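Dissemination and training. As part of the outreach component of the grant, students in the summer workshop were shown how a complex can be specified as a set of sequence lines and then modelled as a single object. The example used during the hands-on session is reproduced here so that future cohorts can follow it. Participants entered these lines:
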Amino acid sequence: MWTVAGILLASGFILYLEAPNLARNAMMKELGIFLIVLLIGTAVGIMEAVKLPIPNPLTLITAIHKPISDMMNAFLK
Amino acid sequence: MIEKGKIGVHQFTVLTILFTVGSSILIAPSGLAHAAKQDAWIAAAVGLAIGMGMVFFYNRLTVRFPNTTLVHYSREVLGKWAGAIVSFLYFCYFFILAALVLRNIGDFLTTQVMPNTPIQYIHIFFLLVIITGIRSGIETFARTAEIFFPWMIFFFLIMVFLLPAKFDIHHITPILGYGIKPVIKASLPMISTPYMELVIFLMIFPFINNAPKARKAFLTGVLIGGVLLIIISALSILVLGADLTARQMYPSYSLAKKISIGNFLERLEVIMAGIWFITIYFKLGIAFYASIMTFAELFRMKDARPLYLPFGMILIVLSVIAYPNITSFVSFASKIDFPYSFPYAVVFPLLIWIVAVIRKKGQA
Amino acid sequence: MRKYCAWLGLLTVGAAVLLAGCWDRRELNDLAIAVGMGLDRQGGQTQVTVQIVNPGEVASKKDGGGYSPPVTTLKVAESTTIEALRKLTVVAPRKVYMSHLRILVIGEGLARQGILKVMDGISRNHELRSDFYIVVAKGTTAGQVMKILTPIDKIPANKMFSTLEMSDKLWAATVSMQLDKFISDLSNPTKDTVLTGIVITGNGKSGQSKKNMSRISPYVNLAYSGVALFKEDKLVDWLNEEEAKGYNYIMGNVNNSAGHIACPGGGTAALDITRSESKVKGKVARGQPSIHIDLFVEQNIGEVRCEVDLMKEANIQALEEIAEEKLTQMMKAAIRKAKKNKADIFGFGEKIEDADPKSWRKLKKDWDDYFSRLDVSIQVNAKFRRMGTTSNSLLDREE
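and obtained this result:
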């Protein structure tokens, strides 16, 4: 609970640090991307804090490359 | 391009050395000794040789495209869509690399020094310092590297000079007693990190102020970094022996535990850990910087600086969930990393180069 | 400016909160510094005895002023070493801090049963370094050894450490073994290991209290005696003094030592060994392994109890030959004991591997058998250099 609050607080702080500058210089695209990434960051941060399972890219990578790795190992035995 | 700063050639050499040594100085000897036993240092040398070959190839690529980053010329050569896909894949590669390196330092600290601290907090704090460092641009970051580099060398030399007293020459025999095959097998994970990750410097190369000298510096830097890794592997084997090196999670730390100056100054290993803090800091900084830059250039943003903090949040979460336990990491690093890095280090650059030649893009 | 302050503020707060290592902080007065640890077998469990420093006592300038001895022992039994160390918190007023450990004593009972499982927990612990010595309690339990108070050194574990270090340098019959070498040898399938044995001399319970130091000659003391021979991870035999010396000569561990030989005409002469170097070479001939040991020893004459004219070179040469013979005997005795137990404590297997890795791959599986039939040839080169401050013996009175 406190962790989630902390994450939201950090999020807000980051927003405070960066957003005004972007808005002032009318960098709308940058602001948009920044907000999206911040949203994703906060979302996964909260998911991690409440221990919701998050998809792990490494599992995908391992799944793709394991057959190749096994082939290589057999070749080099 | 977004980056406006310029780096000197010497700074680039330092960055390369620090990146090459990176996290490998901590984890490489163990894996090498596991497969090649007492020939671990030979495996490190083999890895270096291949690494130099890769640098040579990347240098050729920069001859063709000296003033733009990887994202730019992949778009130019492969077209808008294919270039974008390749760039996005590189973003993922660099980002995941950053997460793994961050996790490395976190794991090291929680294993050896502070077991009860939740790893997220170590990550958060380390990353905050890194973001402070690279947010101001590559020029400031490179200057910081120049400042810290002598310290790293100083501590490294302490180890090199104080450990020979504890050598046992029989630990390293029989040399190549079991043939070259285990050595080759051991060198593969060594090639995938750090040598295949050197493709990252294609994002930094355009900002160096003297391209021909920079290419030489690239080779020199990787050579020196690789030699440092060979030395550490050899030291591990000579002092601890092949069995202990393979058995320990962080053999360099055990090595540092053995330092005793005149039987009076002992227990200095945490200061030695300073070496690894420095090298991992710079490797992580470069990886994170490159990934943010790739992303920003991919989306043609004017300023990448606001992205650091939110991506930092994602990076921390990724570094925590990347692998559930150390066993998965070892299995990833020793088996999957090589085929995973191969496309990024070899296939894509080769593809870009070949298509560039065919379509007559860039400077011949 | 504002942005800068915000950043700085963030970093400072972060540093204050995170760098203090809140989760891992250990105040100094929350630590019980363990200097010695003893492992025994009790039932099916491991009994851990730790010797903890009593800081007030050790630091106090007034002698024997306090009400407790300089160290305390705590003992607990559990199924694994790690659990036992944690369980100690039910008896210890503080958390036991292992990083300053000086000596690890393994009880003979536990050693005979097998120590590999116990050592695993020890090797994984991040608090334990590798700079302490390991010994075996001979004829007693490690717990008993931990309880003995010793003269001169207030902390018995320190005394055990320094004694072993000294005797390793000056007397060839002990072996100082540290954790990482021990683990290395234990996990080497073809090499076996040794540990020095520690005994409690004297008798009576007074060893466990300050009464032990109440007279000039303490009632009870700790001494090193014998070297335990391990086969795989079980203690199977003891090397006596002669065999232990032979072992150390083969391994090249001898820096300084003393010994005696028989004079050519009867009587004994004592020698002060100043240098020794050994070279062990392996060879495989027609599928049969063999070892050759070259030993070079430099010594001085320390004491003469016979009638011999030390000024004649022929006599010196004769003495050298007798010394060489004696050294060969010692080494052969050690090798015999090892062969009897089929335990390659010398690392001969590794020498064969160095010499001929391909043949070693075939020999490795049955190394026990090959070792017990191993052909070992020894060549000793002993040289006398000096004879102390006098020339001929007092016994040799000019007629």
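Residues 2-76 of chain A form one domain. Students were then asked to discuss how this feature might be tested experimentally.
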